[in-house]
């Protein structure tokens, strides 16, 4: 099963609200999560524990039928049906949050990603050198999300320069951010994102394009 299909099943089989970032955080930040690395660099988990006699839609529909005056259950049926019908679009969206949730990465995703980070066991800090490209891509997006969450939570409003602002972060937050940068460097070293020379050339090409666009506007 591909990672995409795995994330899809995690979302569709849960009776409660689960987003792409919820799945990623459970996979890559939570320890003792039931996942394991294979010799092919995939990070797998047995989904059999998610088996149930009814689908989440059927589950919420049964509650709606028992409580016809409660709009809460009826709304859940509509929500679950929408997610089921649009799951591929949800997975393709650049936003990893629940499409029904107004919350963004301004909120950290639990203590495993803030005060109680496990550098020795969390997958994001302990992936194999031959990590599968699909998992590497997902993990890189996850790190970006995590670092954005840190910036949103700890950024000092009157500090315009990022390097200056981060100096005012709590020590734990600075430590986590540094470890995430190290993880990003390891992911880049896998070669899944092109060589460092290619990345530098692409960055330079984009910069020239932006300069050309801005120059035309002037």
Any overview of this molecule?
With 218 residues, the protein is an all-alpha fold. The chain has one domain (3-209). It has nine helices and two strands, in the order H-H-E-E-H-H-H-H-H-H-H. The chain has helices spanning 3-13, 20-28, 56-66, 71-85, 87-92, 133-154, 162-166, 171-189, 196-217; strands at residues 36-37, 43-44. It has a two-stranded antiparallel sheet. The mean pLDDT is 82.
Radius of gyration: 20 Å
The number of helices is: 9
Summed over residues and divided by their number, the pLDDT gives a mean of 82
Give a short account of the largest sheet.
Answer: 2 strands, antiparallel
Strand order of the largest sheet: 1-2
Number of domains: 1
Which structural class is indicated by helix and strand composition?
mainly alpha
Please tally the β strands and state the result. Answer: 2
Query: What is the percentage of strand-forming residues?
Result: under 5%
Query: Considering DSSP H and I runs of 4 or more, what fraction of the residues is helical?
Result: 55-70%
The termini sit apart by: 51 Å
**Shape call:** globular
Summarize the helix and strand pattern as letters.
HHEEHHHHHHH
Low-confidence spans:
none
């Amino acid at each position: 099963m591909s990672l995409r299909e795995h994330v899809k099943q995690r979302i569709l089989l849960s009776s409660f609200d689960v987003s792409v970032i919820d799945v990623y955080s459970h996979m890559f930040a939570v320890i003792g999560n039931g996942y394991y690395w294979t010799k092919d660099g995939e990070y797998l988990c047995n989904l059999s524990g998610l088996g149930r006699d009814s689908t989440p839609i059927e589950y919420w529909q049964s509650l709606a039928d028992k409580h016809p005056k409660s709009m809460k259950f009826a709304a859940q049926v509509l929500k679950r049906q929408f997610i089921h019908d649009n799951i591929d679009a949800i997975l393709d969206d650049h936003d990893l949050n629940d499409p029904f949730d107004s919350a963004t990465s301004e909120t950290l995703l639990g203590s495993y990603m803030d005060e109680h980070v496990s550098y020795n066991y969390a997958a994001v800090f302990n992936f194999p050198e031959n990590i599968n490209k699909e998992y590497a891509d997902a993990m890189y997006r996850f790190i970006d999300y995590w670092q954005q969450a840190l910036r949103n939570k700890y950024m000092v409003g009157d500090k315009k320069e990022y390097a200056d602002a981060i100096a005012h972060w709590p020590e734990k937050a600075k430590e986590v951010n540094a470890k995430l940068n190290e993880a990003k460097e390891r992911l880049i070293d896998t070669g899944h994102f092109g060589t460092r020379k290619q990345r530098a050339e692409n960055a330079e090409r984009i910069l020239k394009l932006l300069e050309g666009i801005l120059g035309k506007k002037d």
